[in-house]
Amino acid sequence: MPRAYQSPLRAGQVEQTRERILETFLEMLGEPGTHDVTMPELARRAGVSVRTAFRHFPTREDLYDGLNEWWKQASSTPLPRAPEDLPQYARALFATFAANEHLVRATRQSKALQEARARRKQQQRRYMAGVLAPLVRHLDDRDARKAIAVLHMLVGSDMWLTLRETWDLTSEEAADASAWAVDTLMNQLRAKKPMRPAR
């Protein structure tokens, strides 16, 4: 049986349509007062049929997960591979947050986007724990978990928003503060000697 020909042009058009739907969805979420988006309205604004929109995103969960995944790829911030990468990772990530501020804020306003974000958390926690394992191996499990949690929090979008909104820092100042805090905590962890059991 002959194999079906997959046209690169057709595949490119499909991907462009998907991106147009997601870009439109992001614009709509960023509009003041927008908390819910219907698929017919999204399709109309994106210039596609409702059927096409549903073909790309059969469920609302698929749509929100698709937006999260698309933004993660669009940000193209290389993940840290070792503890010493974390300060530079914070700077790069905060620059991404600044460039996509509307999405960061929309995520806080949309319950569905918060749920989509929460579905990625377990994977993020596992990855960060693996990266930081060499830094905390001399700690007991409870202290290691706390140290990893704080370091992860310092490079997150919640920290970026807090520094911007509560402390009126520019995005660059927020990045400097995050990188400084990460460096300071990691240096403290490196200096801490392993606890010796009492004899």
Describe the structure in your own words.
This protein has 199 residues and is mainly α. It folds into two domains: 8-58, Arc Repressor Mutant, subunit A (Orthogonal Bundle); 69-191, no CATH class. It is 74% helix and 0% strand. It is built from ten helices and no strands. It has helices at residues 8-30, 39-46, 50-56, 60-75, 86-99, 101-109, 111-136, 141-154, 157-165, 171-191. Helix 1 (8-30) crosses helix 6 (101-109). It is elongated, with a radius of gyration of 21 Å.
Helix content: over 70%
Shape, principal axes of CA atoms: elongated
H-E order = HHHHHHHHHH
Please state the oligomeric state of the protein chains shown.
single chain
Distance between the termini: 75 Å
Average pLDDT: 85
Unreliable segments of 5+ consecutive residues: 195-199
User: Structural class given helices, strands, pairing?
Assistant: mainly alpha
Can you tell me the number of structural domains?
2
Count of DSSP E strands?
0
Rg on CA atoms, Å:
21 Å
Beta-strand content: under 5%
Instruction: Specify the biggest β-sheet.
Output: none
Distinct helical segment count: 10
